[in-house]
Design brief:
The complex is a heterodimer of chains A (291) and B (357). Helices cover 76% and strands 0% of the residues of chain A. Chain A is globular, with a radius of gyration of 25 Å. Chain A starts with 6 loop residues before the first helix and ends with a helix. A six-stranded mixed sheet of chain B has the order 6-7-8-3-9-10, sandwiched between helices. Chain B has a five-stranded antiparallel sheet with strand order 13-12-11-14-20, with no helix packed on it. In chain B, 38% of the residues are buried. The two termini of chain B are 36 Å apart. The longest helix of chain B is centred in the middle third of the chain and has 18 residues. In chain B, strand 17 and strand 18 form a beta hairpin. Chain B has two domains: 229 residues, 3-Layer(aba) Sandwich (Rossmann fold); 119 residues, Beta Barrel (OB fold (Dihydrolipoamide Acetyltransferase, E2P)). Chain B has 357 residues and is of the alpha+beta class. Chain B is built from eight helices and 20 strands. Chains A and B meet through helix 7, helix 8 and helix 11 of A and strand 6, helix 2 and helix 4 of B.
């Protein structure tokens, strides 16, 4: 039976979610406003979405942002999987704890600090051996990959930790060797976590403004940078339309990622429960088998 | 001729723990051998060394005359059926079975024929496209068996093959496993902690304790003629009495174990020597009047438990001795004996096992 919600809980819930989502909903509604003025409703229209498609600058920035996010997410995922493998599979090597703490600090590091330190690194590297020459798309990708892979590592590690090692041994027993075992057995089994990690890294990169503005150069403005500079000249309904599209894109990938993680952990839990039930029956059978 | 599998003075340590301690064992071709022992006795470690997942600290393992020291797991003529089956969750039943065949670079058409053949063998025809999570526990076990047999190993290792099945299914599967082994004439080594499973499956059982083999014998020998107190106690239920040999005549020993007992003389015992007597519960007969057997002890019943097939009793005799006995549920007109009743426990001198320790 479902318990009726207590009044205080209901009020707090409505208030909490209201603070979170009312501004977003208002923004989405105003993106369909036909008026030029953002705060005056003058009827429904989709003309700002049309105008958006005509805006070269925004389309170009969108293209760059997508390219940066896809590249950064891919690099993040590859390195994230490697980091996760190192921490889960290589036992208790020296400085393991210290290293795993170091690998996850970028998760909580202020973005300003990350952005500034990466900028200093890129300038220093350019001075030392001439690469990267100036800042642009490449440096944004590298910057986004550095924090993206920490997130990816956390997601993949969680899955690898309860990975049943005996299926890799079974593969070895049946004549397979590494790296074939990794690609035919390990990777397909942890694939949902890898996909989730990619989507997470993609989202983080796609909506990052702070780090990108530190390490971007002329001609490499990503979508958030373009939006931010436009907003300084006043919010237009066009920006509302663009923000709506971005929200949908990010929400879709976050929801997909969490659905994958949720579904996966549920099937795994069910499998575990079955094994546990089997064990219990064995124990009972054992007692009965005593003559 | 050299034995098919030769394990010679094999030792394996994990830190301070000696998992397998200077163990030697020969196993013949097409034998169904069972390693029996409590958890932590080293039986799984020995199995993993045979499969090539653990290294050998000292000693050697030979399979079919070839030293396995430098042969990696992937190249050994050995396959293993894991306790939890370790099926590949993302592959269909057919692809699970075909995995090892593809690694052996068999042609796809041959693989298809072989998979069909194996599915027939384990009675899973038509299940090709199922995923492991769509199968019952018993079906998963059979897929694991088919997958392990696919490459026609010279030796198949089975780690607690029936542990994850419920009791009824386990009984059927035991016979099926023996049938398959006899049909294929592959050498099987089964590891188990379940003595009943070991008894039904194996032609020979090796009982392990603390990394050593305590006794290797046929199930009947192990049960009826255990070599020491550990084996007698480990396999099934038993009552122990401690005594001293007081006389010998006509092939029988007279023993004073707080009560006088006659036992068949197995040889090697002399008058005055201390001995342990082990008597199996089903060899003792309870009755209200004196029984026909040579040993008759006046008793009273302390405890009884009805299990359906039989009743288990604990009875006390003179001088504080306690005996366990099982009476089959088939007493004719006699009503079964109840709590506190007085009567006699009788047993044959041939059913008394004498142990040195």
């Amino acid at each position: 039976m479902r318990r009726p919600l207590a009044w205080p809980a209901l009020i707090l819930g409505v208030l909490g979610f209201g603070i979170l989502y009312v501004p977003v909903i208002v923004m989405i509604i105003y993106s369909f406003n036909s008026s030029r003025l953002v705060s005056v409703w003058a009827g429904f229209s989709t003309k700002w979405y049309g105008a958006l498609l005509q805006n070269e600058q925004i389309l170009e920035a969108l293209g760059k942002s997508l390219w940066v996010a896809v590249s950064a997410a891919t690099i993040s995922t590859v390195f994230g999987v490697l980091i996760a493998l190192a921490f889960v599979r290589f036992g208790n090597f020296r400085f393991r704890l210290a290293l795993s703490a170091l690998a996850s600090t970028p998760l909580v590091m202020p973005e300003v600090v990350t952005g500034l330190s990466l900028l200093l690194l890129f300038i220093g590297m350019e001075g030392l051996f001439g690469w990267p020459s100036g800042r642009g798309i490449d440096t944004i990708i590298i910057a986004h990959a550095t924090f993206g892979m920490c997130f990816a590592a956390v997601v993949v590690q969680a899955r690898l930790r309860d990975f049943d090692m005996s299926i890799e041994e079974a593969a070895a027993d049946l004549g397979a060797r590494q790296p074939y075992i990794f690609f035919s057995i390990t990777l397909p089994v942890i694939a949902p976590a890898v996909v989730a990690a990619w989507l997470l890294a993609f989202t983080l990169s796609f909506d990052d403004l702070v780090i990108a503005s530190f390490v971007s150069g002329p001609g490499s403005s990503t979508l958030p940078i373009v939006i931010f500079s436009k907003v300084r000249l006043g919010v237009t309904p066009e920006i509302n339309a663009l923000a709506t599209i971005m929200i949908l894109l990010v929400a879709a990938s976050v929801v997909t990622a969490s659905l994958i993680i949720y579904h996966n952990s549920r099937t795994r839990r069910r499998a575990l429960e079955q094994t546990a039930a089997g064990d219990e029956i064995t124990v009972v059978g054992q007692k009965e088998s005593q003559p | 001729m050299a034995p098919f599998i030769r394990i010679e003075n094999v030792t394996r340590r994990f830190g301070d723990v000696v998992a397998v301690d200077d163990l030697s064992l020969d196993i013949e071709k097409a034998e169904l051998f069972c390693l029996l022992g409590a958890s932590g006795c080293g039986k799984t470690t020995l199995l993993r060394m045979l499969a090539g997942f653990e290294t050998v600290d000292s000693g050697r393992i030979e399979i079919d005359g070839i030293d396995m020291a430098s042969v990696p797991a992937a190249a050994r003529p050995v396959n293993i059926m894991f306790q939890n089956y370790a099926l590949f969750p993302h592959m269909s039943v057919a692809n699970n079975i075909a995995y090892g065949l593809r690694r052996a670079r068999m042609a796809e058409s041959e693989i298809r024929t072989r998979v069909e053949e194996l599915l027939r063998l384990v009675r899973l025809t038509g299940m090709d496209d199922r995923r492991p999570h769509q199968l019952s526990g018993g079906q998963r076990q059979r897929v694991a068996l088919a997958r392990a047999l696919a490459r026609r190993p010279k030796l198949l290792l089975l780690d607690e093959p029936l542990a994850a099945l419920d009791k009824k299914l386990r009984e059927d599967t035991q016979f099926e496993l023996v049938d398959i082994q006899e049909k294929l004439e592959t050498t099987f080594i089964v590891v188990t902690h379940d003595q009943e499973e070991a008894m039904t499956l194996a032609s020979r059982i090796g009982v392990m304790d603390a990394g050593k083999l305590v006794q290797v014998d046929s199930p009947r020998q192990l049960y009826d003629r255990p070599g020491n107190r550990f084996i007698a106690d480990f396999l099934g239920s038993v009552s122990f009495l401690d005594g001293i040999v007081t006389g010998a005549k006509d092939g029988l020993l007279e023993i004073d174990a707080k009560i006088p007992v006659l036992a068949l003389d197995p040889g090697g015992f002399s008058v005055g020597q201390p001995v342990s007597l082990a008597i199996r519960p089903e060899k003792i007969n309870l009755s209200r009047s004196r029984g026909k057997a040579a040993n008759n002890i006046p008793i009273s019943i302390v405890d009884m438990a009805f299990t359906g097939v039989a009743s288990n009793y604990r009875v006390s005799g003179p001088n504080g001795i306690m005996l366990k006995t099982t009476q089959p549920n088939q007493r004719g007109e006699d009503a079964p004996m109840e709590w506190e009743e007085q009567g006699f426990a009788s047993f044959d001198p041939a059913d008394v096992v004498l142990l040195q320790d």
